[in-house]
Amino acid sequence: MLEIKNLHATVGNHEILKGVNLTVGAGEVHSIMGPNGSGKSTLAQVLAGREAYEVTAGEVIYQGKDLLAMLPEERACEGVFMAFQYPVEIPGVGNTYFLKAALNALRKHRGLEELDAMDFLALAQEKMKLLEMDDRLLTRSVNEGFSGGEKKRNEIFQMAVLEPKLGILDETDSGLDIDALRIVANGVNALRSPERAILVVTHYQRLLNYIIPDFVHVLVDGRIVKSGGKELALELEAKGYAWVEEEARAAAAATT
Amino acid sequence: MQEKNSYLERFSRFEPQVAGRDWAPFQPVRRAALARFAELGFPTTQDEDWRFTSVAPIAKTAFALSADGGNEPARRDLDPFTFQGPASTQLVFVNGRYSPGLSSLRPLPGGVMVSSLASALTMYPDLMEAHLARYADSHHDAFTALNTAFMEDGAFVHIRRGTALEEPIHLLYVSTRTAAPVITHPRNLIVAGEDSQATIVEDYVSLADGVYFSNGVTEVVVGQSGVLSHYLIERESPQAFNVSTLRIQQARSSNVTSHSVLLGGALVRNNVHPVLAGEGGECLINGLFMATGRQHMDNYMRVEHASPHCGSRQFYNGILDGSSRGVFQGRIIVHKDAQKTDAKQTNRNLLLSEDAQIDTKPQLEIYADDVKCTHGATIGQVNEEAIFYLRSRGIAKEAARALLLFAFAQESLQRMKAEPIRRHLEGLVARWLPQGALVEAIR
Predict the structure, then answer these.
(1) Mean pLDDT of chain A
(2) Closest-CA residue to B264 (of B432, B26, B76)
(3) Which strand (E) or helix (H) includes residue A125?
(4) pLDDT of residue A250
(5) A214 Cβ neighbours under 8 A, 6+ residues apart
(6) What does the alpha-carbon distance between residue B197 and residue B214 come to, in Å, rounded to a whole number?
(7) Which percentage of chain A shows pLDDT scores above 70?
(8) A97 vs A100: CA distance, rounded Å
(9) What pLDDT band is residue B440 in, cutting at 50, 70 and 90?
């Protein structure tokens, strides 16, 4: 589904991704872990199409297409979804209007009929139950005045409504208490399916107790330096990132 | 000087035409106003209140006083300017002159008097003499002086004590194609009695492109505990000039709301000047201005707290595109006796292009010592983070931008309680926006 080859990206003059390689198949859940500043969020943002990052080398093939050539809205229409680490507050734009517009843009792209207000509301209410969200959040402006937990739940709620093929969670767990974490994880787990791939970007292993990944990758200084199964996450939790960083340095020294 | 003199000469021909008619009692007022205009002349950018707006294009244009006998538009030409929903009373003025044929005066509850200003001279001479030209400031303001010297027609509305009028009264000023640029001096008098309620809409539209000048003055007098909403909708032709002045006199515990939406015109100046003259009065001023091309829109506001325990709120939102220029000048004056004043003023602006410009100058002038007054202004661009967020969910860039601009305008529109008027304005705003159809489709 997704093939990232030798991806390099910079912001300003600063290179953050220094050759990321990653292959994700349909139905798989991959976790990208790593210390702060390793480039985890940058990877998520580049996949979503954030223009602040410049891709200087490499390619990303998504469902056989060149993902990097697509506009952010085209990526969304093709089934890419990123849950933001810091969801943006948009005063004056109603949550319902916004999400209905988004869903209908996607449906239109796929040649499906647009949903009317009634059908949309029924769908939204069903998905809200999944995230244990208060109905009243639908009538509010997008993320405006939402608590940190409500914002993160709103992200997964949007993912549930838009049903992407590739879901990217950018540190969705940060700042969540244990109850909210469980709710968010349940929402994500409900979306796991053989047709859908999920990329979980996180600093901590905690979320992975609930969303159990098929693969865990460790990103250090803009490169994936170690990959493994779910047990790698536990090892990182127990021992920290220092040993992986050390290994990476030793390996780099050996090759030069 | 040349420019000023042409008005003085014009007056010598104009005055005899009105002096013999029912306007006779106002001859001294007219003459005094003209004399004051002769002294003041048109303001220049040397005047503090006009620092950011040059009226030279107005001063230099030779305008004809509106004359009778122009082409009356057909009623259906006015349909786009009529609010959807329940029928309402509509007074139509064509190039400044009241048109009984185009107006629709519906039966109104007892206690509501609505007529053209000219008819009010004969029908309600006492009310006219008690209020007309008693509040608007011809002494300091040259445009008000000019209006007062040349006033001929407009609307008269009187709501008797204890009367609540639910439907809005719509005053529609239509400009049509004329042989030469025309100046009109719409003059409205709104008197809302004690414990009364009413909604008045002043609406300036055009049926053809062209240069003309609407120089309107509206005096609003609200009695004790009266509740009045005033809406100004300005969408003059792209070449037109509009200077409108709203002077509000508020008695004890009255509640006045002034909404303005400026969309059209080449050079527009909107003055709002409430005086909170009785204890416990409340005043909300809510302005939205949207300019593009080379449009110039100047919002001038002066809120006078003259009594204790009054509250006022001012919100102005501006969206400026192209090479347009916006101005916000807001002054809150708290008189010595106006203790416990609670006043707040906010001006927020979005600049959509490199060449668009805004000058904003919120001011406080406080002579009382126990008051709560705040003011602030912001200037920014469309939030790129928010655009990316919307795009990442599948909404195209242009639509995302339109949606955010509409939301910004909505901050103002949401304060408007009269549903048919608000809906009408939402449509106008959406159509103004580039890609606004996208907004209309999803709102």
Answers:
(1) 93
(2) B432
(3) helix A117-130
(4) 85
(5) A28, A29, A30, A229, A230
(6) 28
(7) 99
(8) 5
(9) low
Residue ranges per domain, chain B?
2-278, 383-443
Range of the domain at A195: 2-255
User: What ipTM does this complex have?
Assistant: 0.95
3-class SS of residue B112: strand
Look-up: residue for tokens 């503090």? B48
When divided into structural domains, chain A yields a total of 1
Contact B403 A93 (CB under 8 A): yes
CA dihedral A41, A44, A50, A56 (to 10 degrees): 90
The bridge status of strand B357-366 relative to strand B89-94 is unpaired
Q: Which two tokens stand for residue B308?
A: 């204790």
Percent of chain B residues past pLDDT 90, beyond the cut: 85
CB spacing of A73 vs B443 below 8 angstroms: no
pTM: 0.90
The amino acid that residue B171 corresponds to is L
pLDDT at residue number B154: 96
Side-chain half-sphere exposure of B116, counting CA atoms within 13 A: 21
* Distance set, CA B329 to CA B271, B298, B373 (Å): 10, 8, 16
Yes or no: say if B249 and B255 are a contact pair by the CB < 8 Å rule: no
Contact across the interface for A102 and B391, Cβ inside 8 Å? no
**What pLDDT shows up at residue A174?**
85
Which H helix or E strand runs over B391? Answer: helix B384-391
| Four-CA torsion A154, A159, A162, A167, nearest 10 degrees | 150
The predicted-structure confidence for A143-155, as pLDDT tens digits, reads as follows 999 988 899 999 9
- How high is the pLDDT of residue A175? 83
Of B242, B378, B347, the C-alpha closest to B297 is B242
Spatial distance between the Cα atoms of B436 and B169, rounded to a whole number of angstroms: 29
Mutation pick from B391, B403, B413, B438 vs chain A, by most beta carbons of A within 10 Å, is: B391
Would you state the pLDDT for residue B106? 86
- Identify which of A1, A9, A21 has the alpha carbon closest to the alpha carbon of residue A45: A9
Both structure tokens of A201: 């970007």
Whether the Cβ atoms of residue B189 and residue B219 lie closer than 8 Å to each other: yes
| Pick from A176, A200, A178, A179: nearest CA to A188 | A200
- Which amino acid does the sequence have at B72? E
State both tokens at B119.
Answer: 């008819």
Write out residues 162-181 of A within 8 Å (CB-CB) of B: 162
